[in-house]
């Protein structure tokens, strides 16, 4: 139950981060966005980060900084774990929190996007890009594992691609396609 609540809160945070990012930076969403609701009692909810659990802190920092050019914002210890906030190369509006150490179960690593959708709970984080093909090509050059093929999803007007870190954490690339 705790895992389901944690996963739900992470997903809510990701949606909030995406909505805030899209509206404060005039990022093309591809959708007619509903009006903001500043009178809501929860109006101050704003996405900040998503936590990614990994077994090896140094390897995770190396992978995210070398493969994705993320920047280390802050590092700290907590109990038997080591943690860090990382941000993508050109924004401070979305962070990934690396949580390493402690006791972990074995991760599920997928080679098939369809199979990955059979697991309940948290599935992926999404990064908006202006050219999915260009980013996928760069990730392939850097030895990043791409999951499946790039595809267009008409229902949301986006070209999508998925890749994963060495521990099976899925990351989606999303490009708005105007038709």
Structural write-up:
The N terminus is likely disordered. A hairpin with a 4-residue loop joins strand 6 and strand 7. The chain is built from 4 helices and 8 strands. The strands form 2 sheets. A 4-stranded mixed β-sheet has the order 1-4-3-2. A 4-stranded mixed β-sheet has the order 5-8-7-6, covered by helices on one side. With 179 residues, it is α/β, with parallel strands linked by helices.
Quick one: how many beta strands?
Answer: 8
H/E series, N to C?
HEHEEEHEHEEE
Kindly state the percentage of residues in helix.
25-40%
Characterize the main sheet: 4 strands, mixed
Separation of the first and last Cα atoms: 42 Å
Name the structural class: alpha/beta
User: Counting H and I runs of at least 4 residues, what is the number of helices?
Assistant: 4
Q: Report the β-strand fraction as a percent range.
A: 25-35%
What's the average pLDDT?
86
Shape: globular
Low-pLDDT stretches: 1-26
Taking all Cα atoms into account, the compactness measure Rg is: 17 Å
Widest sheet: strand order? 1-4-3-2
